[in-house]
Amino acid sequence: MHNLLEGKCALILGVANKWSLAYAIAEAFRRAGAGVILTYQGERQRETVEAIGAELGACRVLPCDVGRDDELERLSQALRSGGRVDAVVHSIAFANREDITRGFLETSREGFSLALDISAYSLVSVARAVAPAMTGGGSITTLTYIGSTRVIPNYNVMGVAKAALEASMRYLANELGPRKIRVNAISAGPVKTASARAIKDFSSMLDHVAERAPLRRNTEPAEVADAALFLASDLGRGVTGNVLFVDSGFQIMGF
Ligand code: NAP
Predict the structure, then answer these.
(1) Is 165 helix (H, G, I), strand (E, B) or coil?
(2) Any atom of ligand 1 within 6 Å of the Cβ of 251
(3) Does residue 20's CB lie within 6 angstroms of at least one atom of ligand 1?
(4) Domain ranges of the chain
(5) Minimal CB count within 10 Å: which of 1, 105, 210, 214?
(6) In this structure, what is the dihedral angle of CA atoms 191, 195, 196, 201, given to the nearest 10 degrees?
(7) What would the pLDDT profile of 89-111 be if each residue is shown by its tens digit?
(8) Looking at the predicted structure, is the pLDDT value of residue 1 above 80?
(9) CA 8 – ligand 1 centroid, Å
């Protein structure tokens, strides 16, 4: 398993800190021999992500706020002039705290648009920015959650955003397939990260999964990272347009 990504270059968006799913993925990709490019959202995060990049031995750390077309364009140019990209991991989501906590019926128009823009449309804009650098084909993987198809208490507008994200993933898989670019989603079980803390009663979600999932435990970030590694590597060469659940089996349970 050691050299699965030897000679490949991976762009990983969404490392905020060491608890981020994207951090576990970047670590796994480095161990598997990939060169890794990280991005950060705005000056506020620059130092932290640069320090993480140095620790992981990332080849580049670039700015990219996915809400800004100018930054996506600059990322696209930087990648095209910097050699080939073989794998992309999109590990980004955002919703206003009040739009998650106060009940779905009360979701504001602006909050709905913002959640869908940053959490779903960004997969489309990132794919468009990066595809020209994926000259040898490759893999784009996004992170989703079962709240896209089931009602999960307190997940609210983020569930709608994940449904749009998964549909976008399928349309992109169809359009990018002829260019040998595969597009997939990993549906992870709940993991305590900065984003997850914004969801009310998140710890009761963890308890529920640990009690009910077939494996009777929660998901480890390293398990999500290994699935991302599989999808980015040649082992995943026949897989596209797929949602791969890494959730201790929770998604099969009806009650
Ligand atoms: P995280 O560490 O907070 O990562 C979320 C990332 O999104 C952060 O790096 C954040 O950057 C970034 N982001 C937000 N707005 C952005 C923007 N405008 N431009 C660029 N980046 C932006 O939390 P995580 O749990 O690892 O989340 C990663 C992905 O996994 C998300 O799509 C999430 O929905 C998904 N997921 C998480 C779980 C879970 O239980 N943790 C389960 C299933 C799926 P800043 O911190 O700089 O804002």
Answers:
(1) helix
(2) no
(3) yes
(4) 9-243
(5) 105
(6) 160
(7) 999 999 999 989 899 999 999 99
(8) no
(9) 24
What does the chain come to in residues?
255
Please give the pLDDT value at position 231.
Answer: 98
Q: Among positive and negative, which fits the CA dihedral 129, 133, 136, 139? A: negative
% of the chain residues with pLDDT over 70: 99
* 126 C-beta closer than 6 A to ligand 1: no
SS3 175: helix
Predicted pLDDT of residue 229: 98
Among protein residues, the one with the nearest Cα to ligand 1's atom 28 is 91
Q: Which of 19, 21, 100, 160 to mutate to test the pocket of ligand 1 (most atoms within 8 A of CB)?
A: 21
Q: Which CATH number fits domain 9-243: 3.40.50.720, 3.40.440.10, 3.40.50.300, 2.30.140.10?
A: 3.40.50.720
The residues that bridge with 89 in the sheet, in sequence order, are 12, 141
